[in-house]
Here is the input.
Amino acid sequence: MELRDIRYFVAVADTLHFGRAAERLHMTQPALSRQIRALETELEVQLFRRTKRSVKLTIAGHAFLKDAQQILHQVKQTVSTTRRIARGEMGHLRLSFTTSALRSIVPEIVREFRNRYPDVQLAMTERCTHEQVEAFRDHQLDVGFLYPPVDETLLAITPLQPETWVVALPKDHPLALRQPLTLSDLATESFILHPRQEGPYLYNQIIHLCQQAGFYPHVVQEVAACQTRAGLVAVGIGIAFVPEILQDAGNRAVVYRTLKGDAPSLQMAIARRHDDDSPIVQQFFQIVEETFTNADYLKAN
Amino acid sequence: MELRDIRYFVAVADTLHFGRAAERLHMTQPALSRQIRALETELEVQLFRRTKRSVKLTIAGHAFLKDAQQILHQVKQTVSTTRRIARGEMGHLRLSFTTSALRSIVPEIVREFRNRYPDVQLAMTERCTHEQVEAFRDHQLDVGFLYPPVDETLLAITPLQPETWVVALPKDHPLALRQPLTLSDLATESFILHPRQEGPYLYNQIIHLCQQAGFYPHVVQEVAACQTRAGLVAVGIGIAFVPEILQDAGNRAVVYRTLKGDAPSLQMAIARRHDDDSPIVQQFFQIVEETFTNADYLKAN
DNA sequence: AGCCATTAATGCTTTAAGAGTATTAATCAA
DNA sequence: TTGATTAATACTCTTAAAGCATTAATGGCT
Here is the structure.
């Protein structure tokens, strides 16, 4: 049995007239009569009770009609849905971001995406860079905002705007008054850094920059959350580095100072699997690109 | 799009191998490759991501597969159900019967029908003959146990076993001792009959038989229910006619006497619309026939 | 690094299912 | 009785789909 047969049957069942049904199907009456008869033979079921002058459905024909219409409807629905999914208008997208990404342009991107593709289910999870890479490996993630470097054989990376980090000092620290501050000024300080395994790239970068400035930093504590580091700075445990964008939300007992010359910096990036051909992911990247073009445009004015 | 395309697609999606899928479909690989490609062109959707060595589903392909399998399943289900309905194994049957029919062979017939066709929904309603005819007219009824005569242009009638009616007398009535009783013996009695409009045929029959016996019956009361009539006989209001099969269930203060010669009698019949081609109804009649053949066979032994 | 096996695609031919045309047969209404 | 209506039949024709032979590209294996 083919959908053709079902379409023919429904036309005849609707009109109860082979001639008119044939017309509706843009074919001739004999061809239609033959197809219906063939369908009945195949089913071994009489669907119509015909006289030479009239046609009506049998009981079985009535039942078949109901199902037939449902099948045709489902086929139509399937075609439509498949097309929408292929166009990226429907489906789902699993998104991850590091904690600090929420303080950046990311929320705006997500908002725009939701607006433009309301039928795409968004699943968002906060994950650190390392967790994101693992999730990508396990096919648990489609798009991630993270901090390179990562395994670029698996992931395609698009760098976003660089993010410079500033020094957090207690309000009453002597250096809080000095304005052009360089890394070498911090040589004798105690440092509160983030745990090495949470962000080895940045950690090593800091150590390396300090060594270039002629000292090895004295690390008194390792704390993951930036806010907590600022808190510890406030009570005089030491000094710390935090992202520039987080400084406004900081503690009142803390001042933030930009470093002149080499300073710790990270460049957030957006990642996807190389082998991912999801049109939704493509569209997400499209929006990311547009958002940045737009943002630059605004800045230029 | 045709079911063929869907079947082909599912085969390729299952095996992810054009050659093996073609084998499973009993066709050659190039033909299959071409059909899949045509399907993709028609849908304007890439369903497979092919390399020269491997095939895998795209996101849209995955979604389509799910729906495709469901469609194929539904088609299979529809064919099966339609066949069962055509064979009379599924569907519904609306059945009516008069009150007294429940005291006859009818329950046995229904029991056997339920046994043999458990997937047929039975809707049973008690209706008098007149109500049944109305229900048939309104297409509200498929099979009815009723008492002719009825409109035989609408209904096809199969008569069942004739049912003779007996006289109910008070236990201490003088005629209770006379054994060969005839209708003329009742000439001076008071009669409790059923209401004329409830069964005009039987009512007229009784009047007619009495007149043939040389008298016009003196009717003191009209009561529909046979049991109630027997009750009134017990307290001496008059005498009554009841169906032979009901006499066992009668009042202890009442005796029942068969009439010699002409006696009121009814022949229950089973009715269906002439234009009803439901296989279920046919099968019901089949069982009715078998049940009677069987019953006669038992009697003969 | 090169060769062979594997596998999907392409070009051409063949087949058969389905459609068209002309006609028939039966039924209902006037 | 006749004519209009309508589904079925007989035959021919068209075309979509299948088969066959071959190509092209890829990946594994020595």
